[in-house]
Every structure is written in structure tokens, then in C-alpha cells.
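Researcher: Structure prediction, please.
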Amino acid sequence: MAKAKDSVTVLAYAKCSTCINALKWLKSHGIEPQVRPIVDEPPTSAELAKWIPASGIGVRKWLNTSGQSYRALGKTKFDAASDAEIARWLTEDGKLVKRPVLVKGSQVLVGFREEAYAELFG
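Model: Predicted structure follows.
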């Protein structure tokens, strides 16, 4: 089996409690992901082109609506934006991305729900 398929990457923010909880869950289940700092290395356009469809949720569900970056731009601006604009903004500001983003092969989870992680690694 190809190593890339088995590898797990988590895009996370060190001060994010949800990211911390997700990484603790993974560690407690013997999974050592590659952790990528989402603020320093936000998803690229090419990654989002693959990951958004793989996640099964629309680009607007990728937005961290409780974050400072989102509040600074304002809900009205996001409501008026196209999906392509939102995807571009996600590549420019990692704090706009709902996190953590877990990538395992062709499977992508956005946010942390224990049940979803258990199903993916079960």
C-alpha cells in the first residue's frame, strides 16, 4: 500500500482548543499525524480544489465564522462573495479556515467531531 494513502496530515492552529483536542484524540489512538501550521501554511488553491469536494461540504462550511478574520471582514462581505472568492480568501488567511482540517488519503474532515474521527480510523 502506498505511504501517501496511509499518511495523515492535520492543518491546525497551536492555540486552537479544537485542534488540541483533535490531536490528543489522534495520539490516544496511536496516530501520529504530520501537523501543518494552518496560519503559516494555509491550504493552496490546488489543495482546496481537491479537498472541498472530498470533504462533502461546501466552501462556506469551511469558514471559521467565530474567528477574528471572519468578523473583521464581516458576514455581509461573505454573503455577497462567490464560492471562488471565498476559496481564494481561505488560501490567503489560514485563520479563516474552520479547523482542524484532517487529510487522510482522499478523505478530508473539517473541524473535530469524535464520531467522525472514530469512523475514519475505525
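Model: The two ends are 18 Å apart (CA to CA).
Researcher: Thanks, that helps.
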